Amino acid sequence: MSETPSSSYSVNHPNSSESEQSLSTRHFNVTEPVVAKRICFYKSGDPQFNGIKMVVNSRSYKTFDALLDSLSKRVPLPFGVRNISTPRGRHSITNLEDLEDGKSYICSHQRKMKPINLEQASKKPLPWQISRPVSARRRAVQLARQHEDGFGHRESRITTPKKMLVFKNGDVRHRRTIVLGKKNTQTFEAFLDYMSELMQYPVAKLYTTDGRKVPNLQALILCSGAVVAAGREPFKPSNYESLGYLRPAKLLGIGNRVYPKANAKSESEKSKKWNVSVFTSDVPSAGTSSKVYIALYGDRGSSGPIFLDGEKGKLFQRGNEDIFTVNTRNVGHLYKIRVGHTNTGNSPAWHCKEVQLLNLFSGEQFSFPAHRWLAEDQAGGEVSVELPVLYQGQPILPVTVYKVHVTTGDLWNAATEADVYISVYGERGDTGSRQLLRSQKSKKFLKGQTDIFSVEAVHLGCLYKIVIGHNGLGSGNGWFLEKVVIKDPVTDLDYTFLCHRWLDQGQDDGSIARELPVTDKTLSKGRKDFCITLQFYNRLTHGFICLYPDSRVDALGDKKNKYGLFDVNVKRRNRCIFSSHEMPSLALALVSGRVTGKVGSGACCELRVHLQPDGCAILESASYPGHTVAFSRQGKVADERSGYAGLSKDFVVHVKGVFHHGAIILLNTSLCQALSLRPDGSCSGAGQQQQESYWKVHKIGSGLCMFESVKKPRMYLKIKDDQCDGTGTGDEYCHFKIENNLETGSVSLESVRNKGIYVGLLPDGQTKPVVNTGERNIFFYPQVIKFGREKPMGTSAALKQEKKEFRESPFQPGKAQEPEPQRPSTPPPSKEMRNPQGGECPLPSDDEWKVSILTGNAGTEASVALWIYGDRGLTGPITLGKDNRKQMFFPRQEDEFQVKMNNIGNIYKIRIELDGLPNDQPEWNLRRVILQHLKSKKTVNFPANTWLSKNRDDREFLCELPVVEAGKPIYPIVLYHVYVHTGDLEQAGTDSAVYLCIYGKRGDSGLRLLQKTCVPVTFQRGMVSVFEVEAVSLGKLQKVLLRCEASTKSQHWYCDKVIVREAENNSEYVFNCERWLPFMSQGIILSEIELYPQGKIYCNFMKVRTVISNPFPLKKSGQILHCKYQS
């Protein structure tokens, strides 16, 4: 069947764009006639497509492939025009000579062609007939006529637009929202083609969410609101049914909306038009002969690859700017692009300088500097690059180099010589298809071999699947893939994807590509041992979200409201349950679009966390996407009755415990920069978020901290003499008050010594002492690398508690005292002050003491740190220093200091330590320490006559001294023998520094470095290392804390157990460990662990130390207890 060709034809090539009249009158060479054929091309299965009328001759199209490429740009098919056939599909056209003048043909992207009624398709409706309403009588006539045709059956037509959600078969994450209307429901076959374009894969069948097949339009219209799109594979059950929010009346915020027009589109269906400007660098051989493509990624999905086509040979040449206009689906807020090429042609290498985008609807402009080669023989061998969106000149997401470990199975003929490709999928999109080109091995994919590749991409967040396969080319292309492990350097997580199957056309199911989900064990490892407590601040209501015992929720709480604290239970990826810290059984939940409290951890309690570019978070229901936690201006829960105007759903997240003692943090200044210490001791806010920007927190009091560089120990952040740098020594110039900024989630650092002076940043990033003028140059955004402890480990065994809390294990020197029900909160920092040499002294307060230290025959220039222990707590560390260190601790000189400390009860011991060592082997002869209460004149004596030195009698740089009364110490000094057993595992040993702190009923020993005089300690596999710890008697031991400071994985240490023996009373305590140190817990490296002893009942009891900074008792979790009774 053919149609009478229309009189209006167009020629696609510029050299042959003459009108029909000129073609008929032009004189051609008689010996070489050019035959022009007037042909009309239609789209397979789409009677509404009016046809493309073209003039085809040997000048306009040199080859048949050129014609296919031209038709692919004009006929909308999911995978371009790949087949041309006669109208009934009986004959396939394979070359230009087979085309006949005046005939019509059908274009398809596959071999199978769907016939159409050419007579109906060729009749183009008049403009005023397109939206003309159809009467019932006219509609009946049309259906009757259509039923008489031989080209299909009677189909139901939709009269009122209907919103519907379409899922990919087996993957609930891949979904699209559509509106069924007249245009896309002409025939069922046309709708399947429309879905193929939208879903970006061939759709051959539709199913309901419970697995029933949808055979025609009538069944589609009667569906409840969601369907599953599948290819030729069978239906795959998944969690489709729980998404029952699809009816417009149930969607939060649009419950009262109507659709006034039949052609109304949902927001997700709106297309976007972009101007794309591509700049090629002006360097030799920068141009490319390949086809260049671009892909846009936003929070609503991706555009897919869009080829930037034009006149061949003139695009992407050296120094050129090429401008294109492209249409995409609505991808939402843009966060990255991918630009690349097909690596074809004579000179495929390309040096891309920059890509610029202009949203023609909103006017937004984006610039993506590249300045790199995209070529297999250049740099990393990549032919594509991902570029994040820049915000104020900085990328909103980091660019990460993933390490991909591919293990080939240990079977015969398991190796392959084919080209292998991988695509990695995460929370923030995918990497696109990448060829695994450069392995660290000389030959790739051999039997039993693990190859390591690098894949650079904008950080994807939590990974959940990969697609890996090969092209099936080459001899012996079949491949047995064992597994793939991807290492994320940002979170230090390993993602494992198990396969253990053939990728071979002649083996297994014949597939050469496989989709592999992440192994659940990879994501959940260590999460049971770790807990994070946080608060959600609402900028609109200026309050925190609070969950009350009666399940009420509002956003009106203040920072100290105990009902505003939530413990985080991470389920998978960004899905969490936020349980009340005060009532652990109650959690935030979204029920019918309203936020409330629910008992348990059901599906309604699972919330998906979406982080925004401004640092805020949106909490969305994991079961009902579109339902979010939202509040009105009055702080009440949003619902249909209160309306949806002026709602707020963005929350600033405040994590508790960021500034705990010993924590390792980043003080971020932007999305990808942080405060860093430079080699010359200066500080800059433009540093990379890497180890040189890590700071260790030393908590010296409530809200007061010092910050020590991790890379350069003993260098502290300080403000002194109108300078702000990292050359501090730990004195009071290094003390900073932490001010929380609720509106931004940031903190400011105010100098304690210089009130009103903050750590600020100049425009070039240099640090400078500044006053608070309301500008953002004093804002830092803390990020925890490793959580610390609420109490300073090694200095205090007293937990920070509220006044209402009872003491768990009070110290009992001398006469035992009853624990007091009300205990003072943690004392403020002890501030060292030198006694004035003249003038009147003010009357002493109840918390002021005088410290007198008598030096013996040898003095020291080092600073001295002091801890004071009492039966109600302790104070310390107190830095005893003067303005001029060289005038301190002279031989036979007594130095006096004045300190402040809250009531810690009856003092029973002190610990004194040399700090800030000026040389390699200092020594100090300490004769005596006296503490005197200035008001009551009560005196406490600590005779010493000891050396703090490593050159004398196996001594250390610290010592503990008990109180001496009537010439006798109230507690003896005990020598504890410590036996550390290293496990008998491969690479179990380490040469890293290992620390130990012993806890008993009378405090702790302090954190001690396990070392021997003049002998470097190495913990070797299967060996037992013996050490001695001298301390004032701790009483019955309760636990030990073990820390291993390993900087690389090769230095990690496997500890089997620790045995502590006390020779005086012939007691022995066994602390089983059986664990690697450091270890990973929820993306955070934990280098220390608490171990509990065995007794008459042998207990293997271990608790990972994850104390959260809040004033309320924690529910103890993550503990494992195995008991075996002693016979």
UniProtKB/TrEMBL annotation:
Span of domain PLAT: 272-388, 400-517, 847-962, 974-1091
Top-level taxon of the source organism: Eukaryota
Doublecortin domain residues: 37-119, 162-241
Location of the region described as Disordered in the Swiss-Prot/TrEMBL record: 1-25, 802-847
InterPro entries: Doublecortin_dom, Doublecortin_dom_sf, IL1/FGF, Inner_ear_hair_cell_LOXHD, PLAT/LH2_dom, PLAT/LH2_dom_sf
Protein location: Cell projection, Cilium, Photoreceptor outer segment; Cytoplasm, Cytoskeleton, Cilium axoneme
Keywords, in A-Z order: Cell projection, Cilium, Cilium biogenesis/degradation, Cytoplasm, Cytoskeleton, Repeat, Sensory transduction
SUPFAM superfamilies the record matches: Cytokine, Doublecortin (DC), Lipase/lipooxygenase domain (PLAT/LH2 domain)
Bias (Low complexity) ranges: 1-19
Keyword Cytoplasm tagged: yes
Cellular component, GO, one term: photoreceptor inner segment
Listed GO biological process terms: cell projection organization; intracellular signal transduction; response to light stimulus
CDD domains reported for this sequence: beta-trefoil_FGF_RP1, DCX1_RP1, DCX2_RP1, PLAT_repeat
Iron in keyword set: no
Subunit structure: Interacts (via the doublecortin domains) with microtubules. Interacts with RP1L1. Interacts with MAK.
Purpose: Microtubule-associated protein regulating the stability and length of the microtubule-based axoneme of photoreceptors. Required for the differentiation of photoreceptor cells, it plays a role in the organization of the outer segment of rod and cone photoreceptors ensuring the correct orientation and higher-order stacking of outer segment disks along the photoreceptor axoneme.
Protein name: Oxygen-regulated protein 1
Source organism (scientific name): Cyanistes caeruleus (Eurasian blue tit)
